[in-house]
Amino acid sequence: MCGIIGAVAQRNVVPILLEGLRRLEYRGYDSAGLVVINKGLQRVRSTGRVAELAAQIGRQKTHGHLGIAHTRWATHGGPTEDNAHPHVSTNSIAVVHNGIIENHEALRTRLKSLGYDFASETDTEVIVHLIHFYYQASRDLLVAVRAAVAELQGAYAIGVVSAEAPHQLIAARRGSPLLIGVGIEENFIASDVSALLPVTQRVIYLEDGDIADIGLLGIRIFDAEGRPVERGEHVSELSADMAELGNYRHFMQKEIHEQPRAIADTLLAGVTTHSVLPGIFGPQAEDVLGKINGVRILACGTSFHAAKVAEYWIESLAGLPCRAEVASEYRYRNSVADPDTLILTLSQSGETRDTIDALIQAKKLGHKHSLAICNVPESALVRASELKFLTRAGPEIGVASTKAFTTQLVALFLLALVLGRLHGRVSVAQEKSWLDQLRELPGLVGQALALEPEISAWAERFADKHHALFLGRGAHYPIALEGALKLKEISYIHAEAYPAGELKHGPLALVDKDMPVVAVAPNDTLLEKLKSNLQEVRARGGELYVFADQDSHFSEQDGLHLLRLPSHAGPLSPIVHTVPLQLLAYHAALCKGTDVDKPRNLAKSVTVE
Ligand code: HGA
Does the beta carbon of 1 lie inside 6 Å of ligand 1? Predict the structure, then answer.
């Protein structure tokens, strides 16, 4: 999604803005741009990568002490230079924007009738002309921004500068994330803390409706009613080099290989040798979780697949009804709310618009309790939830989620255990035994990673295929869904996943020699059923790629490619079986030469609807 960075300093801010944009590249974008104030307003925009923007800026020797910059992921108007941000009004005011202005058509008509010429097809451009309109009357940028945002419907995070105010940066947000970076006699804004790490770790998160007036020496923040407010300052735990590639070819590959460490760190935060720490979900967690009568999980994309695995775990370990639902559907549905059902939200970034709005909807419908499982502290989702658990995956840069998914699964398993204990289904001895098994996980995931050379050889056989089918049963069905999603996202091969028992109800019609079929086949109680389903594929000439365990009793035959993972990990097996599917997608994408970390049309944190 769009990335914003802005700076006001006594030094040239252009290198800071460009480094910030580089660090925001992982969010996905299709154009980039920058404005600095230096004897007027200077703008550079490009539909290429940030490196091209930097080269253009180098040639033009653009510099200045105040500036805003942006990576755009188009929602309104194509990815052209005219539509790239910053947008300007009468060459004096410039705006960068993340979000969607829903009443842009009405505002555009009004502003046109007032004489404003529009240079882009974006919804954003109405913001800058509206600010300019109000600036004419007040000659005060803060007053003008306040008047303009009062007319906006929809979501926005904006950075605003004016050629007439060379030391003033205005920021405002509603619905889209934005934070202030605090420096020494210099200050910054960004949509994501990672953009600011080379210059500061001190951050202030703006709340919905806030407007900030940021200068070299001072920061004034006003709430939605215009009252001055103090928002707490936090010191980010992230450091500038955490987001470096090291010896890996892509962030996705690095993040796949970081999973043993990420899982171990996530466990370390929450367990002793005997039990899950009380309060890992928050100080009042034991009280709240002991009272609930069910769980409804709201999530999108990969997080939704983690939610689907959790349905199996929570129902079987804790005996509580659990239902996972796609957040973008839930938020517009008139569902029947049971106040004592816990609303559990999952999101890597904690800024996923649909998930945040689904939580708001759930609260409106009367749900009393909420828990967020998230990888980013202080994100909007975490702040809006009663209880929280932070996974310790570290920054995830690749657009296709990997380590955030497996650490979410670890967090969900811990939740199932705590619920099981509090609802009398898991004894002290059982809890200890589960924790012993959890501690084996980093090692098992490491063994799955060691299959990379074999998986890479398989991937070559996928590169010329147009479709693939993924099959799994039980809690491995959502893992098949996740494997198919990974393949789609980064290799652009069309892939679908089915619970294997559904094969004969339709998808079997698609099976022929050009349709590789991937089976997730651990040695669980459903294995024999799955084997029958695989026979159905073989009988139709389908080429089978089977991920089994050491003890799955498969034999390699013609038309059946077999790889064995470590010995069966019981209910934790979905976590181990995720890893080879991530590697398969990664290597298929390498064969196809796609942009693995920034797949076309996709963005990392989906902060718009
Ligand atoms: N609506 C704006 C900004 C889009 C955005 O926030 N993407 O993440 C545009 O289309 O330019």
Answer: yes
